[in-house]
Design a protein that fits this description.
The chain is built from eleven helices and two strands. It is mostly helical. The protein has two domains: 53 residues, Arc Repressor Mutant, subunit A; 152 residues, Tetracycline Repressor, domain 2. Strands 1-2 form a two-stranded antiparallel sheet.
Amino acid sequence: MTAVRTHTHAQAVDAAVELFSRQGFEQTTVEQIADAAQVSRATFFRRFRSKEDVIFADHELLLEEVVVMLAATRPEARGSSESNPARETAWDPAVDPYLEVCRAARLVFDHHVGQRETSLARHRLLQEVPALRDRELVTTHRYERAFTAYLRDTLPTDRSRTTMSIAFAASVVAVHNAVLRRWLRNPYLDLRPDLEEAFADLRRVAAAPASDGGSPSDGGTDVAPTAGKRVVVAVLSDGAGPEDVARAVRDVLA
């Protein structure tokens, strides 16, 4: 992974988070952040439009890096369309789109873990400022959209149904966020293996051949046939972790 934060960027983000944590989000001004980061007010506004933008500045850069990472595996980027110039987005069997989406999500997780103090301080702020939680939700949806668009473009034609792409993208983001929240509650745990195992479960389910039908399970998981595919809907309790999500989907498909 390339360096996500420039020196000036890192100074502004870290200064803002420290000030927000110490004196409160509403009480902190842009001028105070600029002074603490040792940049001018004009420089601050060239990089960030508002105080809220500073909190999520890393996500903006991460999202760009995720898009670039995924774009590098597209068929046209790998030269896969040379044998079929009429279809520039022909699927390349050497690439597993599901795996690439998991790799992109792992990059985001690793960044949070690598910036532990900033990640923990940001998490505390999100619990205290409702407006920031709303902004976090928007950011989450942007990751989902990026993953969905990539899957629609790179899966084989018979597997690139919009519903399937949306379902897998949403599942990856949900599992990532569940593991990340566990880590934020106990940042000394190494949860990378848990994340990898949950992602592997999701990939196995996504790659499994669909049967002609299905019936509701006894725990709130349903399978609906959709043009030869199946959409899995799982209803779980608030405390369900990524393993519970993956297990519910795996059990009903089994």
